[in-house]
Amino acid sequence: MQPLANITPLKPAGAIEVRNVGQIFKTTTQDVVALEDVSLDVKPGRFVVLVGPSGCGKSTLLMMIAGLRQQTSGTITISGAPIPEPDPNRVGVVFQEASLFPWLTAEENVEFPLALRGVTKNDRRARAQDALQLVGLDGFGKRHPHELSGGMKQRVSIARGLVQDPPVLLMDEPFAALDEQTRMTMGDELLRIWAATGKTVVFVTHSLTEAVYLADEVIVMSPRPGRIVDHLQVSLPRPRTYEMLSGDAFGSLRDRIWRHIRKSA
User: Fold this and answer.
1) Which helix (H) or strand (E) segment is 172 a member of?
2) What is the pLDDT of residues 19-67, one digit of tens each?
3) CATH superfamily membership of 36-90+168-265
């Protein structure tokens, strides 16, 4: 029997471990160090937000966690296993642009990743309808993208990220193109979905207010090469309310992040 000391313990579904990760982009003229010695632990079910100045590597890190890009150095594991390529059973991704197929209905767009995997039509239709209901689009499944508002398109995109029921959801500035009112509404909707599903969420944004409003934890990154320069625990009670935005605790957290960003300008 193998000694207990040599058995690697199983990691809970949704746990993310980033260890000493670096990323170097090679160009014809020089090597660009995008990320350097980044280490991070995200516990299952946590809502973690990445912020930092433009070009600091936030989105690059997110894409590596998604298995869409491989790190130059270091290791990344999801639920205790490496992620050398996209794995929809473990990770769903929502991008800044909804990127919906215009010739497909909302329902068909959500079904699309299931169709690629050979899921039967009846099963994928039922799962797509459940996902659309979860994101507040019950009754809109037969609409095409041109019939939906910007916020509704992003809801479809979130439903597509959730339809395969991965424990981890990665979101790369999903609300950046929305007006402020819609953005705040979508933030509340996302928190509702997160509370209902218990997913581990890693969310990239440039908005400091959005970061503090949504997060359990905020990770602040430095200019290139991107490193983690601060890790804030957001202890504001849930559910979050708009009244918190004017409170001293909220302002103190936002100012602490801003001091890092301003220092790097």
Assistant:
1) strand 168-172
2) 999 999 988 888 899 999 999 999 999 999 999 999 899 999 999 999 9
3) P-loop containing nucleotide triphosphate hydrolases (3.40.50.300)
